[in-house]
Amino acid sequence: MVLRMRKRLHLSLQSRLLLAVLIALAAGLVSSAVVIKTLGSSWLAWAGGAATGAAVVGFLTVALMRQLRLGLNALDQGLLNLLDNDFSVTLASSPVGEINQLIHRYNRLTDALRRERQSLYQRELLLDTVIEHSSLCVLIADDRRRIIFANHLACSVMADGKPISGRMLTDVFAQGNPDLMRAVERLGSGIFPLRAGEDNLYHLFCGQFILNAQRHTLILMKEMTREIGRQEAAAWKNVIRVISHELNNSLAPISSLAHSGQILINKKQWQQLPEVLTTIGERAEHLKNFVSRYAEIAKLPTPRKTHVKWHTFVQGLNFSYAFRLDGELPSDPGYFDAAQIQQLLLNLLKNATESGSPADEIILSITQTPSRSVISVADRGSGMPAQVLKNAFLPFYSTKVNGNGVGLPLCREIVEVHDGVMTLSNRSGGGLRVTVTLPAGMSDENELVKQSV
């Protein structure tokens, strides 16, 4: 009931003006009637009534303007508080309906802003806690390469716990490892020592973002020495396990055959000796090939990139494995080490042939843009399960009976030394697609930058 009465009191401005006019007319008529009764009907009576009505209108107008002025002043002060980021002020209601509606909306706005500010404060506090206790070195630099934020770990690793905010990136990185600073300037990523000659390695990630209309650089660094050591130990254990298995598979029958040959010699059964010696030779050759395949990864030379005509290059592949060329070959030459990329494609075509795909479904396609060459080998074989696809590039990982897990890792290393990218994906309808993306060329400026790095 009280709220309904208060709502009724909050009359609109139009209603208040109309009410003031009606009251003034009523007051004028009453005053005129009194004067006429007292002095008679004359111009003086009518003038008195008009003056009384005007006085009433003036009084009500002044009272109404005061209420309007108070409400507008309150809203003006509240907006100034908002400009000062002060959301704590709540305005009192006004008897003027329109003003009271604006005040009500202002109070709702400030309440929402208060809640949002509190939520943002809590999230910033949580984010600050996570960053300060993170295992990553986190740095943020402005567009002038000046560090504006560095978490505790970054200060500890780079300046022995001393603050580095306000310092230039070149003061932090360039003096310790110029290569690391060049990677930051290129927004690159990779694994670097923090200072030249140190054993501890860090994984670097750089990115940019816009804050307050200014470009900032985000730098994340994670200590990788222990992780790399664990990965190396796991890789060596895997190598030892695979090599031991293969050596046992070859040496055991060689030893057995040598013993059988000795028995045959003692019994002077010469006719069976050639067969025994041939089998020993085959197992020894298999073991030799197995060891040489492993050595290929370790001795992969630096690529000697030249401009290669695609037509001549593809003709050299036709003599080894059957495939179907999809589309026309690019007219512009590629830019790569022809011997290494040929070895790459021979491995891929060999895998496609061994996948069980029909020969006419093994498709080679080559496309080229001014910036890159894309080579694709697709087949209609059995494809790869998700787990195999995930581990396909791991050295010594193989699901083939006679596989050694060297082919695809070697292919990927060839692509990476060419600054390219290699991806595997299953095809809809069955089969596998291998895509290799290589730089189509290199300008003199880029070549100089690469050599300097």
Task: Give the SSE layout.
Elements: H1 2-9, H2 13-39, H3 43-83, H4 97-132, E1 136-141, E2 147-150, H5 152-159, H6 169-174, H7 178-185, E3 190-193, E4 201-211, E5 214-223, H8 225-266, H9 273-298, E6 306-308, H10 310-315, E7 324-326, E8 334-336, H11 338-354, E9 363-368, E10 372-378, H12 386-391, H13 407-417, E11 421-426, E12 432-439, H14 444-452
Parallel strand pairs: 7-9
Antiparallel strand pairs: 1-2, 1-5, 3-4, 4-5, 6-8, 9-10, 10-12, 11-12
Helix pairs in contact: 2-3, 3-4, 8-9, 11-13
Summarize the structure.
The chain is of the alpha+beta class and about 450 residues long. Helix content is about 55%, strand content about 15%.
Task: Write out key terms for the chains shown.
453 residues; alpha+beta; Beta-Lactamase; 4 domains; 5-stranded mixed β-sheet; 14 helices
How are the strands ordered across the major sheet? 2-1-5-4-3
Number of helical elements: 14
CATH class of the largest domain: Alpha Beta
| CATH fold field value of the largest domain | Heat Shock Protein 90
**CATH-scheme architecture of the largest domain:** 2-Layer Sandwich
Tell me the helix content: 55-70%
The fraction of residues in strands falls at 15-25%
Secondary-structure element sequence? HHHHEEHHHEEEHHEHEEHEEHHEEH
Mean pLDDT: 76
Topology, number of strands: 12
What ranges have pLDDT less than 50 throughout 5 or more consecutive residues? 1-9, 442-453
Task: Outline the structure in words.
By secondary structure, the chain is α+β, with helices and mostly antiparallel strands. The chain has four domains: 2-122, no CATH class; 134-223, Beta-Lactamase (2-Layer Sandwich); 228-298; 306-452, Histidine kinase-like ATPase, C-terminal domain (Heat Shock Protein 90, 2-Layer Sandwich). Helices cover 55% and strands 16% of the residues. It has helices spanning 2-9, 13-39, 43-83, 97-132, 152-159, 169-174, 178-185, 225-266, 273-298, 310-315, 338-354, 386-391, 407-417, 444-452, and strands at 136-141, 147-150, 190-193, 201-211, 214-223, 306-308, 324-326, 334-336, 363-368, 372-378, 421-426, 432-439. Strands 2-1-5-4-3 form a five-stranded antiparallel sheet. Strands 7-9-10-12-11 form a five-stranded mixed sheet, covered by helices on one side. A hairpin with a 3-residue loop joins strand 9 and strand 10 (372-378). Helix 2 (13-39) runs antiparallel to helix 3 (43-83), helix 8 runs antiparallel to helix 9 and helix 11 (338-354) packs antiparallel against helix 13. The two termini are 81 Å apart. Residues 1-9 and 442-453 have low confidence and may be disordered.
